[in-house]
Amino acid sequence: SRLFRTLMKMGGLTADQAEDLAESAYQLARANKVNPSAVMKDVAGATEVFAKFAKDGSKNILDAAIQARKLGVSIHETATITESLLDFQISFREKLWLNFLMWMLQQCKNL
Questions:
Q1: Minimal CA–CA distance to 42: which of 14, 18, 64?
Q2: Engineered SS bond to 44: which of 3, 38, 51, 101, CB 3.0-4.6 Å?
Q3: Model-level pTM greater than 0.70?
C-alpha cells in the first residue's frame, strides 16, 4: 500500500517494520478514539510533511497524525498552520527590528 511505501522510503524501514509500525499506529489511533483509516490516509498522503518532520523516526509522524486527527485536522493541515505561524513570527521579528532601527535613526537625528 501507499502507506507502507511511504514508511519504507521515508522512514528507512523494511516491509515488516513498516507493517508493524502501521499496525501499532492503527491500534493507537483506535485507543485515542480517532479514525485509524483517516490517520493512515493522512500519513500516506503527507510525504512532504513526512520528509520534514520524520528525521527522528517514523513513529513521530504517526503520533503527530493521530494527535492532529484528535483535533479534527490532517497532519498536512497542522504542518501548514505551523509554517504560517513561523512565517508570522519571522515577519513580526523583522518588523520589530525595523522599528528599532528607525528609532535609533531618529535618536541619532536628535543629537
A1: 64
A2: 3
A3: no
